[in-house]
Structures are given as C-alpha cells and as structure tokens.
Write a sequence for this structure.
C-alpha cells in the first residue's frame, strides 16, 4: 500500500472558534498525525487559530493537549465577577512567544489566521509577516478581552464574522476538511450578565460557521454537551478523546477513498 502522502491530494484543514471546545480539534490532529497525514494548508480563527498555529509550527498534538490543559491556561479564560474591565492575554502572549516563530513564512505548514477588523467591519486573512499578534487578535473574544492593535487597526475574534474560514484553503487545495466545535448547548449558567453575553456571542458564532461548512468537502462536528463550558479547560482530556475518535474515522476513510 502506498503511504498517506502519496495517496492524498492537496488538502486543507479548517479549524473553528469555540473556546475550550476547540481542544477536540487537537484530538483530530492527533488522529491525523498518527496515520501520517499532513495538511498542505491550515486556516483557523479564535481557538482554532491557536491550535492551527501551534501545529503549523511543529508542536505534536499530545504536547499541545498538555499545554492547553495546564493550570495557567485554565486561569487565562476564568471569568471575573463582572465585565467592567476587559482582560488581557499576557499568558497567551508568553505561550506564543515561546512556541511560534516570528513570521508566518517560518511555519512548517502554510497558515491563515482570521481576525475581525472593528473599524472596517471586515474579517481579515493574515498569512504573511508577523504571526503572533494576529493569533492573539483572532482569539480576543470581544465581551472579555481587549482588542489587539495591528498596524493602527483594532482587531477582535475572527468568529464574529467568520467562524469557519474555509475559503483560504478552498482556493489552494483539492479537498478541505473542516472541524467545527459549536454543535449543542453552550452553557448551563445564564444567571450572570457575563455568561448571557457569551451565550449570545456564541449563538452568533455558530451561525457564522454555516457558510464555511458548505465550502468544506467534509466537516467533523461532534455533539457537545452543555457541561463542556466554553471557558472550561479542565475537561481537556474528554474533549481531546471526542475529537480523536472522530478524527480516526475520517482519516481511515480518507485513505481508503484515495
């Protein structure tokens, strides 16, 4: 039998936003990694941009899981009692500085990161030049985190306008796999304004995945329980396992068909 690389056409991987649920994407990556497949292009927004960037830089999925389930990462997304002050993303900045190169051009896999330009009202595709700030901007949930300034413009989470940015890979690849992690209920707690705001935000984000799903050849979209809170990284292993199982099914089918 030929290897996965010989059988596979040029294919792209698209990763959605979805908070802690994005760890399921790491499980999908582990299944892909084990079978010897490697995407020719990765596109992502929010947590998908973080996961995609780390994988593009060569980080093994098992190491990524350990990083995303660490205590400091848990604290990064812990809500304050109110939304009177926006949070910073200092720890994420430290993580990206340690594990990412300076530019997109230095990554092992071509990467597209999407963030929302607040003043222009557009979703911008970052794929060249400095890589860390676009990833941070793409992950800046507007109800929680400060906008990130890039070249004098303010940016927030790309999921505001495009939560599954498949078009970047669609234009260069024969086959596009999407991983969308927002199916199901979002939170069990609607008793605080913070959680209500997040629920509204991710309802919008969920709708913004629909166009991207239509542009994919296949979408891995696991059903998520409400207990998988968007900001709760303590269930990382369970989320990883969900993605891993569905990733195994896709990877085996992909090789058989080709």
């Amino acid at each position: 039998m030929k290897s996965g690389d010989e059988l596979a056409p040029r294919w792209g991987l698209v990763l959605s936003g979805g908070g802690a649920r994005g760890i399921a994407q790491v499980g999908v990556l582990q299944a892909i990694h084990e079978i010897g497949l490697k995407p020719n292009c990765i596109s992502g927004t929010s947590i998908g941009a973080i996961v995609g960037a780390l994988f593009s830089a060569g980080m093994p999925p098992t190491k990524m899981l350990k990083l995303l389930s660490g205590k400091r990462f848990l604290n990064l997304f812990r809500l304050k009692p109110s939304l009177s002050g926006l949070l910073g993303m200092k720890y994420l900045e430290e993580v990206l500085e340690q594990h990412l190169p300076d530019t997109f051009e230095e990554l092992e896999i071509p990467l597209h990161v999407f963030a929302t330009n607040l003043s222009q009202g557009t979703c911008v595709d970052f794929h060249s030049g400095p890589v860390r700030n676009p990833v941070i901007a793409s992950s800046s949930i507007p109800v929680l985190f400060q906008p990130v300034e890039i070249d004098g413009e303010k940016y927030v989470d790309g999921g505001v306008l495009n939560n599954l940015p498949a078009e970047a890979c669609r234009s260069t690849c024969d086959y596009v796999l999407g991983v969308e992690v927002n199916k199901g209920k979002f939170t069990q707690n609607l008793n605080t304004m913070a959680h209500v705001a997040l629920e509204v935000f991710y309802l919008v984000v969920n709708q913004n995945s629909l166009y991207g799903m239509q542009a994919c050849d296949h979408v891995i979209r696991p059903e998520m329980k409400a207990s998988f809170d968007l900001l709760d990284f303590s269930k990382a292993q369970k989320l990883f396992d969900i993605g891993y199982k569905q990733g195994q099914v896709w990877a085996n089918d992909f090789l058989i068909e080709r």
